[in-house]
């Protein structure tokens, strides 16, 4: 927690400053060297956070070197060293990786269960062979897969998604272990959460944040899937951490090899932001927005104090931006290869209404602010439980059914947000009253369009955009006000969460099946903020008590919430290994197999399992093809037999979401 002494005297000696902190009841005196830049708190030694404890600030004047003398820690105790912290973090990292391996094997069977995952796997396999797109096979409908597009004008087949996540997944696919990519990045995110929380606040905050991240039900679920949100969260967290380091090293003379230290962190920040945008462009823009505002404010403040130093502040920001933009270039390149148009929205080739925005253009029946807020309320009700697994209720079979089929209000009251108000009090102290006033104004702004004229404004596309811009601007406003480093960075974490949630209002659909994944990239920020009051408590009543209670709570959430919540998705969408095993049992030795699925009214779920083992190049051991004309014609079947004359043929009959071998009775 941050405290200020009664009196701090500042004396300038040349370009150096001496800070004298008064009110020393026991005459405890320590001496520490420190460095800090404009609008930064100083990082001191031997007390790592001496300046943070006392809120030493150079009043917007650049400090190159100084001495803090006569410091006391009696009234504001500094956390004692926690020698086991890094070992605990290592255990949490290994726990995260182990749980990803376990859940991906036992629940998801390392198969794609969503349409998105099928398309991601398709793209990863073509990229692993060096192809952005491939030629459409004929008959194309026989080899159709969800969210994989056959674009007639170019004759090309490709997935609809940007290639950021498929590029990562291609590495795992090349190793024959696609699951390991998310497992690795999920584990690394736990380590980053610790590092970021420790440096902004303290060791306890970092350690608790790492634990919350590792045990998060949303993380446990998504880390075991083939979705791209885990790598997006890692990239977002790495970007935030690298930006933090840029501010810390700004104006210093330290070097990384033959380059200034800021070069290293600018490159890392640019790479992280670029990979985030390449993976999830809208999310990348939302995460970056608060830091764009922060950068503008820093430049203005530096320019006011000393215009000559603006270039020192601007250089890392330019480098970061250029690297991020360069890494985003594959998006138009991929679009060009697929359609001949670099600005084409590939999502619209599956659903013409799949766009960000408001009005008739977007969503199945048009998108409005009213629908966006409704989806947000639905999704936040699940987020409140899925974030850390703290909920006022148990996951019953009825709740599991809800998780499989519904996307409205979650029946269980989630309690994972309970730490946020206390975090604001710890970080902002009496200024938390200002935050309450700010929050009340934001709530009033959300309520206003629904209260006027029977809510007609919520259905106006122009007003929806105006509403969203003002709301996000209001979230950014406190960045202008907080000059203290800890408070300003505390608010940046708040802004990351709120901006991401607000930006998703412009998208026509919510997300609950694989948790509220559209908000997932804010998990690290939420974990660090939630850890702040627990760390404050640990410093006052003892780590043993707080850590013990937290360990019990997280273990209970893993058992009572996460396990039934995640296992609800076992064999979801009728995807499982049984069909693969049955085909293998009928196979003649090592002879490659062509599986023909007959039926004119068949959904992808009937044979999605076999899609997962079918190569985009149709050269895998098992190739599945759909005889979409069914019994009405042998035309497609004869084409397929001619394409694969040397393969053993196994035939299935299918209807809706079910498939069975032609020599068996259809399922009950």
Supply Rg: 28 Å
Q: What fraction of the residues are assigned to beta strands by DSSP? A: 5-15%
Main β-sheet, spatial strand arrangement? 1-2-5-3-4
DSSP strand tally: 14
Shape: globular
Mean pLDDT: 88
Q: Considering DSSP H and I runs of 4 or more, what fraction of the residues is helical?
A: 40-55%
Uncertain spans? 1-76
Largest sheet: 5 strands, mixed
Class from secondary-structure proportions: alpha+beta
Can you give a write-up of this model?
The chain has helices at 50-54, 85-106, 115-128, 164-175, 179-200, 203-215, 217-223, 229-249, 261-279, 281-305, 310-328, 330-339, 369-386, 397-405, 420-428, 432-451, 461-481, 485-503, 523-541, 543-567, 578-585, 608-611, 635-643, and strands at 8-13, 16-21, 32-36, 43-45, 63-69, 134-135, 148-151, 156-159, 255-256, 259-260, 593-598, 622-627, 648-655, 658-661. With 668 residues, the protein is α+β, with helices and mostly antiparallel strands. A five-stranded mixed beta sheet has the order 1-2-5-3-4. A four-stranded mixed beta sheet has the order 12-11-13-14, covered by helices on one side. Strand 7 (148-151) and strand 8 (156-159) form a beta hairpin. It is globular, with a radius of gyration of 28 Å.
Brief overview:
With 668 residues, the protein is α+β, with helices and mostly antiparallel strands. It is built from 23 helices and 14 strands.
What descriptive keywords fit this protein?
668 residues; alpha+beta; 4-stranded mixed beta sheet; 23 helices; disordered N terminus
